[in-house]
TrEMBL record:
Pfam family, one: Peptidase_M1
Protein name: Peptidase
GO MF: metallopeptidase activity; zinc ion binding
Signal peptide: 1-17
SUPFAM superfamilies: Metalloproteases ('zincins'), catalytic domain
InterPro entries associated with the record: Peptidase_M1_dom, Peptidase_M4/M1_CTD_sf
Entry keywords, A to Z: Signal
Source species of the chain: Hymenobacter gummosus
Domain Peptidase M1 membrane alanine aminopeptidase, residue spans: 292-411
Length: 506
């Protein structure tokens, strides 16, 4: 899941005035009742008697988040506050000057959240789990600047937390004082802060530290098993992208609703990518599914690149790519890492992509309606994942076949990553189509328009697939099938031939 609303400025780009921001987050033994008390100190660019602060009222489909903010208090007499939820705004009236100092409390707005409430702040006596965007109010001078993702500086101090109340976040392990310098939306706000009864494990991959922070006693998932799955997936994915990753990276795993009985036959799990990591949250009951965890682990991890470094210019309109191709590579890289056999890959793609796509009531809806309905309807929400994954399969196999198995979509994805790392370069469908044309020596604008934008079913034909894989179209849903021994098919499909020559540029 990747969502970030970026403010498009019509004004010419201006260097944002650097605000100085200092936060103190205070512990209380009654965290559930009192919340995390956050003290803010901001220095504005010019003297004023009122300052607007941003505190998101909606994050990733969770609405009314300002209900979780209480206890607004000025640091001295003369402060008044007005909260404007529709504008995600706290108006702070203060004594005239440049220094604004006040505090607020972040707490749960219900004693117990439902299994569908993932992205609200969790604050209990024994732990907390709060997104950076739901913890730190920032002056609107930062959020309303014409710069898309402004640079900022902030310090965060953690005050009064007992030594056994573990503190961890996407930036640091166990730190009681942190200095942040970076981008507001994609780094400072795309973060997660946890504390309390979390268990922290770590390993090193090419001298970069990888953390696994989890809490709860899981049915099916032992700490060691999850850690090994993280290591397996991350090793394969970093090798695939030829990217050693950030100096520090964290995978968070937290239970939402835990039930020991069999009253609810299901598992509700969600993953969200973060700056330098990702977060998984799930119900915890006897129906926990190890395969589901590994799938989501692989999917969310891939967003470090697809949707992350390959940043989409048009969010939901590009989800067929950022979610669909992520899903496709979740399956392909699980095959690559040894997590799935070739037979299991075929079975998973049939069951989890093709069958679910063809069962989706909204399957032939046009792409622009996905933008409107993504957060409102789970059928629409799932559509770009499966529609895009089928397109990725089709394209990958076309490139493999037409290049005589010397190139694949893998090469195109790495080239796309390279291009999107250039300053100011975002992913656009136009860039994608230009690259695809180079790899295929054919323009696929027609197929893109018909199958991704208009929503027609993409016909998979046996002659579109690599040798050794075929498709049975005799039923309502296409069914992929092995058409020969698995080992040579796997080798052909993964195309890990280092001697393959680069394609001639046209
Ligand atoms: Zn995703």
């Amino acid at each position: 899941m990747k969502l970030l609303l970026l403010l498009a400025g019509l004004l010419p780009l201006l260097a944002p005035a650097q605000s100085r921001l200092d936060y103190q987050v205070h512990y209380s033994p009654q965290l559930a009742a009192e919340g995390l008390r956050v003290q803010v100190q901001a220095r504005t660019t010019r003297p004023a008697d009122s300052t607007y602060f941003h505190f998101a009222n909606e994050v990733w489909g969770e609405k009314d988040l300002l209900r979780c903010l209480t206890g607004l208090t000025g640091a001295e007499p003369g402060y008044r506050f007005r909260v404007v939820p529709d504008s995600s705004r706290i108006v702070v009236y203060h004594p005239r000057g440049r220094d604004v100092r006040f505090s607020y409390r972040v707490k749960q707005d219900a004693a117990q959240y439902t299994k569908a409430q993932f992205s609200r702040p969790y604050v209990a006596d024994t732990y907390f789990h709060v997104l950076g965007e739901s913890l730190f109010a920032v002056p609107e001078a930062l959020t309303k600047t014409a710069v898309e993702d402004p640079e900022m500086r902030a310090t965060v101090r953690w005050v009064g937390f007992p030594p056994d109340f573990r503190l961890h976040n996407t930036f640091a392990a166990g730190a009681t004082e942190q200095t942040f310098r970076g981008k507001l939306w994609t780094e400072f706000y795309r973060s997660l802060y946890v504390g309390g009864d979390y268990r922290l494990q770590q390993f090193s991959l090419q001298n970069r530290t990888v953390y696994l922070a989890q809490r709860g006693q899981w049915t099916e998932y032992t700490d060691a098993r999850v850690l090994e799955a993280v290591r397996q997936a991350l090793t394969a994915q970093r090798a695939f992208w030829q990217d050693a990753g950030p100096a520090s990276y964290t995978v968070f795993l937290s239970p939402t609703v835990t039930t020991a009985d069999t009253s609810w036959h299901g598992q509700s799990m969600k993953g969200s990518s973060l700056h330098q990591g990702f977060v998984l949250q799930s119900t915890n009951n006897p129906y926990n599914n190890w395969d589901l965890l590994r799938y989501i682990l692989n999917h969310e991890m891939l967003h470090q690149w697809i949707g992350g470094q390959i940043g989409a210019a048009h969010e939901e309109l590009n989800y067929w790519f950022t979610e669909g191709f992520t899903d496709y590579y979740a399956f392909k890289n699980r095959l690559r890492s040894g997590d799935l056999t070739m037979e299991q890959w075929v079975q998973s793609f049939n069951e989890d992509v093709l069958q679910r796509l063809y069962r989706n009531a909204e399957r032939n809806q046009p792409n622009y309606l996905i933008k409107d309905n993504y957060w409102k309807s789970s059928s629409f929400g799932k559509l770009p994942y499966r529609r895009g994954a089928v397109f990725a399969l089709w394209l990958d196999h076309q490139i493999l076949r037409r290049s005589g198995y010397t190139r694949s979509l893998d090469d195109m994805m790495r080239e796309l990553l390279h291009l999107c790392r250039q300053p100011g370069q975002k992913y656009t469908d136009e860039l994608f189509l230009t690259l695809a044309q180079r790899y295929l020596r054919e323009d696929i604008s027609y197929e893109y328009q018909k199958y991704m934008l208009d929503g027609a079913d993409l016909p998979l034909r046996p002659e579109d697939l690599v040798e050794g894989l075929t498709v049975d179209n005799s039923g309502k849903v296409p069914v992929l099938k092995l058409n020969g021994p698995a080992a040579p098919l796997r080798e052909r499909y993964l195309n890990e031939n280092p001697a393959a020559r680069p394609m001639a540029r046209q």
